[in-house]
Amino acid sequence: MSVSLRDRIKSRAYALGFDLVGIAPAQPSPHAAEFIAWLEAGYAGTMAYMAREPERRQDPRNVLNGARSVVSVGLSYYTFRLPDDVLNDPSRGIISNYAWGADYHDLMLPRLKALAAFIQAEAGGAVATRAYVDTGPLLERDVAVQAGLGFTGKNTCLIHPRLGSYLFLGEVLTDVEIEPDPSPSSPVGCGRCTRCLVACPTEAFVSPYVLDSRRCIAYLTIELRGPIPRELRPRMRNRIFGCDICQEVCPWNLRFARPTREPLFRPVDLNRAAPPLLDLIGLDEAGFRARFGGTPVMRAKRRGLLRNVAVALGNWGAPQAIPALIQALHDPEPLIRGHAAWALGRIGNSQARRALVKALRVETDAMVVEEIQHGM
Q1: Which of 142, 145, 105, 112 is nearest to 129 (CA)?
Q2: What is the pLDDT of residue 2?
Q3: pLDDT at 1
Q4: 99, 100, 114, 150: least CB-packed within 10 angstroms?
Q5: Helix ranges restricted to H, 148-300
Q6: Domain's final residue, options 146, 174, 202
Q7: What is the 3-state secondary structure (H, E, C) of 148-160?
Q8: CB neighbours (10 Å) of residue 230?
Q9: CA 26 to mean position of chain CA atoms
């Protein structure tokens, strides 16, 4: 019996190392109206790219002319859960699980391009394809649900009932008509569970399935390029790049998440996942690149990461952080100086106050001056 094109494509995707693969027809998103409402409510924050050509995101056929099928893949990145004594150690900065190892774009995109080439070879003739790893104008979680990869959780993550939600998603769009995977006969979901909604320290969930990015720690530490709103800084605790809290408490993950098969996603050691804050606050550009080059942390850039580290040091509130924060008051980046001033104000002892008074005499940046004055 001959093997269908769908099954050959899926077999090739699994051979390339993907954990999940499904095929959906290229069709409009069933949640297009909700996406527009989310944008209009301002929940995208400063992510202006989300609002560019919103109609294009709603239908894969607007991305690839003549698209008929979408191959959706998932790759697990879960490694292990940090022990509670590490997660709750205020002297350490917690980095999101997905950023412990290699940048997933560098690993997944070549595999997706290889899958696209396989589709072209198997289908024959002039075949159009396009591959994306969260960089294309697609509502990729909706596409993944349509392809049978899982369901949308109340924390807005895609959840697979046997792998959980620690998943990278990618897609290959093609103008080849491929038999789609059948929809699940008995859809699963979150039921009455609200653990993720309750656990979020910044109260970023407006309601189940609706996230206000402007309050999300992942957004604040990665996507936001300017100052972090002062009222949210204490709630960020020691999270310095991304946040997994809504995934850490999810029963689907607690029960089903298994370590990834991909060795490049595993951290070299504990200090890659939860580095001591005092090891980071003094990094220059070369030191930052040497430590985090080739990982997703590079997205925050040095100025963003050290801004986050300064906030975590302020939340720690330990006097031993004062010398490093005083040094950060002289950083060339105003964003780092301003958040270092806030951290010194949080510590609030006489040594910290003297440092702020001294810095105020020479500071010329208006934002930093305001932070110093607030800290005093």
Answers
A1: 112
A2: 61
A3: 46
A4: 114
A5: 195-199, 217-218, 245-248, 251-256, 270-273, 285-292
A6: 174
A7: CCCEECCCCCEEE
A8: 12
A9: 26
Enclosing domain of residue 337: 278-376
Q: Spot the catalytic one: 59, 85, 89, 134.
A: 134
Low-confidence residues in the chain, pLDDT < 50: 1
The residue written with tokens 């979901």 in the block is 189
% of the chain beyond a pLDDT of 90: 94
Q: Identify whether 181 is a catalytic site residue.
A: no
Strands 158-159 and 151-152: what pairing? antiparallel
If you count them, how many residues does the chain have? 376
pLDDT at 186: 67
Q: With CA atoms as reference, report the closest residue to 201 among 227, 229, 228, 237.
A: 237
104 belongs to a structural domain: yes
| CA–CA separation, 291 and 285 (whole Å) | 10
Residue 181 lies in a domain: no
Burial class from Cβ neighbours inside 10 Å (0-12, 13-18, 19+) for residue 238 reads buried
Question: Is residue 341 one of the residues assigned to a domain?
Answer: yes
First to last CA, the chain: 78
Question: Distance of CA 99 to CAs 46, 94, 173, Å?
Answer: 22, 10, 27
Angle (deg, nearest 10), helices 285-292 and 301-316: 90
DSSP 261: S
